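# nightly structure sweep
# worker-07 picked up a monomer target from the shared queue
# config: single-sequence mode, recycle default, output format = structure tokens
# input follows
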Amino acid sequence: MALIASAKQVGSGIAAGFRRYAEWLVSITWKRFFLLSILLLILAGVLSGIPPFSWDIATRTVHRPASRNVDIKVDEHGLRITPKSKKSQAPEIIIDEHGVQIRKRADPASGAPAREIIIDDKGVQMRTPGEASPPSPPAPPAPPSAPSGQSSIVEDIRREVVDNIRREIAQAQREHAEEMRRDAEEAKRDAEEAKRDAEDLAAEVRREVIDAVGTLGSEERVIHIRLGDYLPQVAFLFILLSAAIKIAYAGRIKAEAKAAEAQEVAEEESLKRQVVEARMAAMQAQVEPHFLFNTLASIDHLIETDPSRASRMQKNLIALLRASMPVMREKSTNLGRELDVVRPYLEILKVRMEERLQPQITVPEGLYSADFPPMMLQSLVENAIKHGLEPKAEGGALTVGAEVIHGKLHVSVADTGVGFAKAATAGTGTGLTNIRERLKLIYGDAGELKIAENTPTGTRVTIVVPYKAR
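# output follows
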């Protein structure tokens, strides 16, 4: 166990040292790295000649060709030994399939002529270069002719002898013709085999000659192996390894930095999201009492003028609050639930304004499931009545509509009142400002609040949000 713990400790120490070295490599520039590499190579070259790096750790004996004044060329054609210098008196020797040729140059100092010695299947020949082959020996002289008297007798004897020889040869040929035919095939096979053996022998002799010539003039040399001989190579390998570590660890550090940056961005976005949610909650809390106080003020007014109508409005308000309070506390809802809040609200105002208010809702049922922020539609309806229709003596109409245009939901509240910001009861614009900020926080640039004139009179306010059905 102690050995394992010690090994783990050593391993952790090596890993820590490697990390520190890699971090140091990444921290320096490439210019400084190359400068330090050059200094390391110079230091390795200096240390290689200083003890203990200059001490012998082993020796080795090798053979190498000695310096000579002739060129030795061995190839598939044979062996050729040629003097390097044209002034050298060493002979030129050629050994090939034709035989051996020894050529010696003329010596101007001693006056010795050039000579050429040829050893081939004809024997040994010695001649001067350019000299013709020795002439053939002369033919033997013809025998003296016999006298004319004896010529006929000699001719008859010669003819008889020739005939006898021919008969004997013919007889011998007939006697041995069959045997010769039988041995012809065997002799041919023997000749081919002999030829192959001769070629093999010649190839073997040539290889032996080549091997022998390869060791001609060789000399032994003792090589001293020292530890310093490997210092430059080790230093160069260490530099390459360090460069690889610098490149790889730099990429790793960059990746870790990017991951840390991404983590910081994610945390920052999370904090921003929390801030946005808190601001939205604060704005929504600001909208809720705004609606409630206006409604209670209307009830208070009716209590003085028409208590029965005030009682009906109070009952409708209680029903409205029971339906709207859950919606008011949610962060998101749909258009149908918002309309469920707007309808009782319009009924309450209808009781108060009687014929001066003609409400109308023209939203297709297919859009009831579309996502829509809570309390925004109710705020638009409240502003349209308070600042558009109530200041007008004869009142007017209020229309709530919705449609999808180019993938976005357009929800509008249009009135036929006195117009935008023209009434004496014009508010401070807090409600519309809250709506704009909430749209910006929820949808960014995809949400928009539009205010335009309504034809022929009045104001049209439209909320534009991305269309998404629940």
